[in-house]
Known about the structure:
By secondary structure, this protein is α/β, with parallel strands linked by helices.
Amino acid sequence: MTPVEIRERLDGLAGKAAACTACRLHKGRTQAVFADGSPDADIMFIGEGPGYNEDREGLPFVGKAGMLLNRLLREVGLDRREVYIANVVKCRPPNNRDPRPDEIEACKHFLVEQLRLVDPAVVMTMGNFSTKLLLKTSVGITRTRGQVYPWWGRVVVPTFHPAAALRSGPAMEATIRADLELAVRTARERLADPDAQAGGQEEPDSYQQLGLFG
């Protein structure tokens, strides 16, 4: 598939997300928040769901946490336009609560297709929710962060949600920055070594087989 075809597929998918009424979350949204960044990205970031600012602007990570993420990306030599940023669900949960299982089930096909089309070398989960969901673990982010996990032909590198650094300060910022450096280094190593792309697991025939979220 050519880059132009990938962009067209993603644009079409975004249109479907904008019109989606498959779960209760659509009733409270201002608009769906599909993604931001480059379809050619080597690193894909996955958060939980849109917040207040994201719901208003239609882009992920645009509030204070987003501004911090942008700065940390620059500090490790990345531009936001070079990465791809998405969420587990595309509509804002009320009061920023965790998405419910049926909401995730209704929305997961969008993220599955985003992963298939962007095909990043590294997936970086931000925060407890997306990390536990993708890795199917009950272990918290404090213990899972800073490590590289083989995952369906690529790897996952978990880190704290940038909002945690807004609450905790410079020490947490430094931790997220270190995890970003690990993700960048891992992406470069994997892209330089095609054999590493296998990630220790065979690529499924269909990404629907991933069973991403249970």
